[in-house]
Amino acid sequence: MLTTKHCNEHRTGPPERDARRLILWLSCLLLGYATRMNAQETLLYVPFVDAPNGSVTLADGSTVGQRWLSSLTLFNNGSTAASWRWVAAYGGGVQLGNADPYCMTSTAHNVPQGTGTSVGICFPDKPTGGLAMLVLGTTGPLLPNATVSRVRTVIGCQGPGGLLIPQGRVPVPTFTSLFPAGSTVTAGEIDLGDTGFGRCASQNQRYPRRVNVTMFNAGDAQASFQIAVRAGVNSSSTYYQQTVYIPAHDIVQVNSLPLNLDDVAQQPAATTAGGTIVWILITADQPYLSYVSTIFDDGEPGAMPMEVYPMHLSN
Question: 232 and 160 in contact (C-beta within 8 Å)?
Fold first, then answer.
């Protein structure tokens, strides 16, 4: 009977001439794959972001390029073994590379107990639109940490000055299950800024935010997404609504919802001591994922450039 002990004795790669050893090597490969697939594997969905964000000129005259960039790490915080593997990447025209064994869906990456690892990217081209959805298969007690930062690079600089300089790193949600088709999820409350603060300070100190909604269609057919915005406390009326159609297995971000700060503030009970607030509700007719982010474009030094709001499934 073939066991993993036999396979561990033949881990040098496929023999070229010895037919018996070649058969044994192929059998071990299938055994390892079947063992991993029979384990309790959890699918982990992780948003990936790599999108340009313009450039700025510093006081010394140097030009700094900016872009939004995400990262993903996994930590084994349990008492048992853990592993992960690539399953898929969706959206933005990306495809998993298959030339590098690291990127193969059959390759299990072990994470020893009490250690962490960083997940590298397995597609050579940046996703069009700057967004993709990564899918990993995980076993064991792995703790994911996905983040997004606005990073800066000095344009035209060679050497250490060209390193990425992250600013405002914030977590983005990861998912181990999909929102069911027909369900409604909610994000908020979402702070759009403060209308009153502008009377005493410059306009940018009102902290107006640009609101983006990211949606992933996990279904096998085109999905119809319904976005609804509720403005103010105890308000059941819809201030703004929009329908978005997304192809199967694709991810789309609706940028800058038309939520004018001053107009929203005129809604009953929309302005509180913490600013002007709204809630955003999402419904889709295919299994899906979604989250909301807000961008503070005209920030002052020290201001967080991005906030991320996870979606919560309605009870």
Answer: no
pTM, full prediction: 0.81
Q: What is the pLDDT of residues 85-113, one digit of tens each?
A: 999 999 999 988 877 899 999 999 999 99
Looking at the structure, do residues 31 and 93 belong to the same domain, yes or no?
Answer: no
Cα(163)–Cα(219) distance, rounded to whole angstroms?
A: 39
Q: How many domains does the chain have?
A: 3
Q: Does one domain contain both 155 and 79?
A: yes
Distant-in-sequence, close-in-space partners of 83: CB < 8 Å, separation ≥ 6: 36, 108, 109, 110, 111, 138, 139, 140
On whether both 226 and 96 belong to a single domain, the answer is: no
Distance, C-alpha 192 to centroid of its chain: 22
CA-based nearest residue to 290, from 312, 307, 306: 312
What burial letters (b/e) apply to 179-217, b meaning 16+ CB within 10 Å?
beeeeebbbbbbbbbbbeebeeeeeebbbbbbbbbbbbb
CA distance linking residue 310 with residue 129, whole number of Å: 21
In the prediction, which pLDDT does 38 show? 46
77, 144 contact by CB (below 8 A)? no
Q: What is the largest distance, in Å, between two alpha-carbon atoms of the chain?
A: 83
